[in-house]
Amino acid sequence: MRVLLAVDGSGSSNAVVQEVARRPWPAGSEFAVVTVVDPYFFPKAPLLLEEAKQSTQKSLEELAKPLVDAGWKVSPNVVLDNPRHALPRAASEWRAELILMGSHGRGTVGRLLLGSTAQAVLRHAECSVEIVRSLGEGGVKKIGMRVLVPTDGSEYAQVALGNVAARPWPKGSAFKVIATPEFPVLVGEYPYYAPEQVAELSKQSRDLASSAARTGEELLGKAGLEVNSEVTEPRDTPAHSILAAAAMWKADLIVMGSHGRRGFDRFVLGSVSETVALHAKCSVEVVRKPLAVL
Questions:
Q1: Confidence (pLDDT) at 15
Q2: What pLDDT score was predicted for residue 192?
């Protein structure tokens, strides 16, 4: 597995390396530890830019040392460009299968902001992206992870489930598959739904959610994972249902498809996967299908 770690020296990005170090990975995995220095701030100081690049390279090598010591193949690399453009391109050129990055960096206040580097990478990367958040364990070492996998029965949800089933996880990890019924939004006079139509649509939605959750649980169970499933109560949006379920279950990680039954939403602001990635309190991995089958 080829994993690109996007770091910038902030506490948030340092948590990315710590998270990688504590997880098991498939044999033969390779890691690229990448940071981007924006030359925009050095318009008339090429020597300072070169010094910044060299010092950053040394810092990356030091940051990557735990992974090197663990026996992994690691490539530290400094890229000169705008981070929002450079990271998706670097991942594509290196043929990364997964990008891990912090939820916010040195220049960001609070959670992800509109237009942030993390949001740009979420939207434009060709591979899967995980936004890593430190849960602040207070020095207590946890046993295993709690991984929440939302599904709507769509093709991409199945890809996310297959991704979870195929990867190694820390011993003692627990998994929960959830599905949320979606009901028609009744706003204004049109379209008009008779009461019996609303009841039938609601039943169909619940049946679809139950089937999706059951199928997901069976898939992870066959992989030998400790898993259960749940059909959650619907909220105003599917994203809010997922966020509420993650908070209630105290998930460490949410793994979900990049888009669902509503169609291709990679570039749509407010999509379910993007909303969850932006607002979850835990880490979120948005899984995309391999390019070969797109």
A1: 85
A2: 62
The CB density around residue 266, as the number of other CB atoms within 10 Å, is 16
What does the block give as tokens for 78? 């400094």
Q: Distance (Å, rounded) from C-alpha 50 to C-alpha 47?
A: 5
Whether 128 and 286 have beta carbons less than 8 Å apart is answered as yes
- In this model, does residue 58 exceed pLDDT 80? yes
Question: What residues form DSSP beta bridges with 174?
Answer: 146, 226
What is the rounded CA–CA span in Å between residue 171 and residue 174?
9
219 token code pair: 């898939």
Half-sphere exposure for 174 (CA within 13 Å, toward CB): 11
Instruction: Put residue 19 in one of left, alpha, beta given phi > 0 → left and psi -120 to 50 → alpha.
Output: alpha
Taking the C-alpha atoms of residue 245 and residue 230, their distance in angstroms, rounded to an integer, is 10
Task: Count Cβ neighbours within 10 Å for each residue of 174-199 and write b for 16 or more, e otherwise.
Answer: bbbbbbbbbeeeeeeeeeeeeeeeee
Q: List domains and CATH numbers for the chain.
A: 2-132 (3.40.50.620), 146-293 (3.40.50.620)
Q: What is the pTM of this model?
A: 0.85
The pLDDT of residue 183:
66
Using CA atoms, how far apart are residues 8 and 273, in angstroms rounded to an integer? 24
pLDDT in tens, 101-151: 987 654 433 333 334 788 889 889 999 999 998 765 444 456 799 999 999
Residue type, 240: H
Angle at 125 between CA 265 and CA 61, to 5 degrees: 150
**What's the one-letter identity of residue 210?**
S
Terminal C-alpha separation, the chain:
19
CA 265 and chain centroid, separation: 15
Q: Radius of gyration over alpha carbons of the chain, in Å?
A: 20
